[in-house]
Write a structure and sequence with these properties.
Length: 92
């Protein structure tokens, strides 16, 4: 088992999403792209991906808040077992 080799904590995409459903569809595409094991030098490597999503302007308008909220959603995805995405949801 390899420890975390690469972690991308924040990613920005130039695409414009019309709805939360579009974002979910895109997140699922990313998850599916990493499901297949990778062969490197005769070794099979299984990857996992966790994604946290915060939406502008629904969740926040400031970039720093969007990053913080997406990070909170990311940790929720990891807490729930990883290999999934979670949207940020304000605690009531």
């Amino acid at each position: 088992m390899l420890p975390r080799v690469l972690a991308v904590t924040n990613c920005y995409f130039g695409e414009r999403f019309v709805s939360q459903t579009d974002v979910a569809r895109f997140a699922n595409k990313i998850l599916n792209a990493f499901k297949k094991p990778i062969a490197i030098e005769k070794r099979i490597i299984q990857t996992s991906v966790s994604i946290g999503v915060a939406l502008y302007p629904k969740d926040a308008k400031k970039p720093s808040e969007l990053l913080r909220f997406s990070d909170m959603a990311l940790y929720q995805a990891k807490k729930l077992g990883g290999n999934q995405f979670q949207f940020y949801g304000k605690k009531k």
